[in-house]
Design goal:
single chain, alpha/beta, N-terminal domain of TfIIb, Rossmann fold, Dimethylsulfoxide Reductase, domain 2, 7-stranded mixed beta sheet, 6-stranded mixed beta barrel, 24 helices, 28 strands, about 30% helix
């Protein structure tokens, strides 16, 4: 019996925990702690503990599939690649779109970006950051000049006050929750704002229950109180920022007094005052947020307001401070860094910038050039174009994404995808989206490849191959290189190894320029920006100046706006959505992990006990949840741990998909949908 242990990085949330995969006779059979990682120090959450279970699932894709007469038939790689190349050659560049993936490696995302812009010549490339943190990228870039988490996970314990809003950290990022508990043990005050009394709320010194969609009002109120009492960081504001008077003119309005914001948010005025005082008077205050802030039609406003609060209090550029945007997926930061977005190349070099466009065109050497220097469509725009202008987009190549569960208003998304002429899906399982494809390509999972991913704190970490892939499955970047070669560009995709791809990334990307596989072997890895090979990396951003042209943070006045859809007589409740600790996003991996799926085998809708009593609904009763977009049958979870008037559904479950109900209204800047607030009603199911 041959047993060995392969250190790797977890493929679930953006924390970047590491563990050892146990390999017996060439197959992954388990996992054990890896105590060398500074991120998780040998600890893992349930998903990390059982991250090996889906690897050798019998449901894994093993051969290419081509749909003929409405049914999939097995095909050779040569057949599948030839068909894809033939089809994509027949379309104009603007008729083609590509979706990259926050679940795959940096190397895979770079290869997709290069294939899209170089081989297909299309400007339409995006990925699921559009659905989770695009408002972080846009909002923080507008304020700080950089759209990433400012601090490191390891300095959270140094905070004297931690304000968590829009994040159920103890379930979604448990090992970051551990750092919050270390801060609390060190004497920090923990403030938590959420419509639900979550496991995170149970650890808070001050829990503020509020109506989903009132974030800007809450943050403006805290700034109102801070400025009114003279608690603002006057020297920091004077030396490091501009626009404070514009911000002050808005937040000091009577609209944002604690009494008035109590009416908007439901948070008692005295709690708002207490939060403002604790936060402002602490010598170091950190903010942690996630999709509860970003997934709104005012997502960018929410993110800017978080950043404004940190500038008003001077809580930036030091340990235990910062704007800590917690990324929900293992490589959503990396996929953005790799330019899997419609407006940038790697490292956020703008496609409309003439010098950046020339740089990539020259480096890649495509004989007939690359995509035009114009911004492309976001994924949410692609879906609307497919619906509203059939025929404008004709072909879609999807790598590791499952929009048939992850997109809002999924009945609309399904209708849109059905308007495509040709769709390719590259994945590890036959997902709900893959079932709609014309060609399905079997890819490798994290345990079957060498590569890198970039965590929520900008830490670039290694995956290490532990076993061979099942059947004929291939590396994602290698599949994309095969397509590129079949399109006539073999020289541009002549990589031999994942390291070759990474070296090309580092050459073209200033923030990754000083990184290589040898440097990334050490357990602590490297935080970008890391501009030179002797640079130690940058755990904390903005220590001396911001990444704006003049180095100053930019404040502005932002008014609170309600969600796009608010409760009314017909739909009297607010619906919000999120994750649970046992599952992850569309369930592609966790629901193929028997232990995790056994713990939580299906979804639910949380209803406040008083609301349930008025509706005559009992705990575990199957009911109908209905919005203007659709309805689902789902078991009720009657609980006192959710605010009256608010309901919650997890979004992992195909049999009761929360996103059949959610609103596809978009933030005008980030084009992120409003997953976190829409109007809903529930009804008892009557016997036919």
């Amino acid at each position: 019996m041959d047993v060995n242990f392969v250190p790797t990085t977890c493929p679930y949330c953006g924390t970047g925990c590491t563990f050892n995969l146990v390999v017996k006779d060439g197959k992954v059979v388990g996992s054990i702690p890896n105590t060398r990682s500074p991120v998780n120090e040998g600890k893992t959450c349930p998903k990390g503990t059982y991250a090996y279970e889906f690897v050798n699932s019998e449901e894994r894709l093993t051969v290419p599939l081509i749909k003929k007469d409405g049914k999939f038939v097995e095909a050779t790689w040569d057949e599948a690649i030839a068909l894809i190349a033939e089809k994509f050659k027949s379309y104009k560049p603007d008729e083609i779109a590509c979706l990259s993936s926050a679940r795959t490696s940096n190397e895979d995302n770079y290869a997709m970006m290069k294939l899209a812009r170089g081989a297909f010549k299309t400007r339409h490339i995006d990925h699921c950051a559009r659905l989770c943190h695009s408002s972080t990228v846009a909002g923080l870039a507008a304020v700080f000049g950089s759209g990433a988490m400012t601090n490191s996970i390891l300095d959270i314990p140094e905070a004297k006050c931690v304000f968590i809003i829009g994040s159920n950290t103890f379930e979604q990022h448990p090992l970051i929750g551990r750092r919050v508990m270390q801060a609390k043990k060190n004497g920090a005050k923990i403030i938590y704002a959420d419509p639900r009394y979550t496991p995170t709320a149970k650890q808070a010194d001050l829990y503020m229950q509020f109506k989903s969609g009132s974030d800007v009002a809450i943050l403006n109120c805290m700034m109102h109180e801070i400025i009114k009492n003279g608690w603002e960081a006057k020297e920091f504001i004077e030396n490091r920022t501009k626009g404070f008077e514009d911000l002050k003119a808005v937040v000091m309005k009577d609209d944002y007094t604690p009494e008035n914001v109590e009416q908007i948010s439901g948070i008692p005025a005295d709690q708002l005052r207490q939060a403002a005082e604790w936060f402002a008077k602490s010598e170091s205050s950190a903010i942690l947020y996630s999709m509860g802030i970003t997934q709104h039609t005012v997502g960018v406003d929410n993110v800017k307001s978080v950043a404004h609060l940190q500038m008003v209090t001077g809580n930036l550029g030091r340990p235990g401070t910062g704007v800590n945007a917690l990324r929900g997926q293992n490589n959503v930061q990396g996929a953005c860094d790799m330019g899997a977005l419609p407006v940038v190349f790697t490292g956020y070099q703008k496609v409309i910038d003439e010098a950046a466009h020339k740089k990539f065109s020259d480096a890649w050497g495509f004989p007939d050039g690359i995509a035009a220097p114009e911004n492309g469509y976001e994924v949410t725009t692609m879906i609307n174009v497919l619906s509203d202008n059939p025929g404008e987009l004709k072909a879609l190549y999807i790598m590791g994404e499952n929009p048939m569960l992850s997109d809002p208003n999924i009945d609309h998304a399904k209708h849109s995808l059905e308007n495509l002429e040709f769709m390719v899906v590259q994945d590890i399982f036959l997902t709900e989206t893959a079932q709609m494809a014309d060609v399905v390509l079997p890819a490798t999972c994290y345990a079957e490849k060498d590569g890198t991913q970039t965590s929520t704190e900008r830490r670039v970490q290694k995956w290490r191959k532990a076993q061979d892939p099942p059947g004929e499955a291939k590396l994602d970047w290698k599949i994309l290189a095969m397509v590129g070669a079949a399109m006539g560009y073999a020289d541009q995709f002549a990589w031999e190894t994942s390291e070759d791809v990474f070296n090309e990334i580092a050459e073209l990307t200033p923030s990754y320029h000083g990184m290589n596989y040898e440097r990334l072997e050490k357990p602590e890895a490297l935080h970008w920006p890391c501009p030179e090979v002797d640079h130690p990396g940058t755990p904390i951003l903005h220590t001396q100046k911001f990444a704006t042209p003049d180095g100053l943070g930019i404040m502005s006045g932002i008014e609170w706006k309600p969600p796009a859809e608010v409760p009314d007589e017909e739909y009297p409740f607010v619906l919000t959505t999120g994750r649970c600790i046992w599952h992850w996003h569309t369930g592609t991996m966790t629901r193929n992990s028997p232990t995790l799926d056994h713990e939580v085998p299906t979804g639910w809708i949380e209803i406040n006990v008083d609301d349930a009593a008025e509706l005559g609904i009992e705990d575990k009763e199957m009911i109908k949840a209905i919005t203007r977009r659709g309805e689902v049958e789902v078991p009720a979870k009657v609980t006192k741990d959710i605010m009256k008037g608010v309901m919650f559904m997890p979004f992992h479950f195909a049999e009761c998909p929360a996103n059949r109900l959610t609103n596809d209204a978009l933030d005008p800047i980030a084009k992120i949908p409003e997953f976190k607030a829409c109007a809903v009603k529930v009804e008892k199911i009557t016997e036919a």
